[in-house]
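To fix ideas, we reproduce below one chain and its tokenised fold.
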Amino acid sequence: MMLWIGDNQHPEFRDAWTWASQSGQCEHRDSIDAAIEHPVARSIPRIVIARADRQPLPAATFSALQQQYPLASYATLLGSLCEGEQRTGTPWPHCQRIYWHRWSFQLVAWSGLDSQALPSAPATSGYIGIVSRSRWIGAGVVDSLRHANIPCVAVAPQQLAVAGPYSDLLWDDSVIATLDDWQAQAAAVAAHAGTARHHWLVSSPRVETWHALQASGFESLHSKPLDLDGILDSLNRRAATA
């Protein structure tokens, strides 16, 4: 069991909450005060506190929460406005820190919730292309996906016009100077090898960035380090609609 405290509809937290709630093993309270005033079982083993900003937590408030749930381990799910919080000198105490774009492997592993809802390897009908200027990054992604029995290949940008066809292309952010530049590359791929779905691998993503990517034609965004579960989920959606 897990108790989720705080916003569960914030754009950065919604996917994590959907997964947690679908497990049937997660309770929710809107705030720490609500979790204290309207408690769940005192023996609950995990409490995650969703934080969209760096608003400080009074020591007395956290102490009262610990007294109400003395057996719990604590984590804080951090939104993009919380990046760099540990350098402020006043980070929240006694909490494992999980950034919003890493929830699908860090929160899942920490929570202990039933992971049956996590995605499995898809039955793809074509190769997955990993587009990167870095041979090291491309090879690392390929190794991870091949370990999950997904046919894939690393491809340099200059090879796109002579390789394929692809069912999906995962673009490393080293390849994309601007979205206009990416759209030109994607159009060249489509002219040669038909329609592929496009996914972006990026460091420290922001919600506003994701909205711009969606408007440009990307199917999904995946944060670094590699979130294999999220990629598998995206590819499963591809297989289900193919």
Q: What stands out?
A: The radius of gyration is 20 Å.
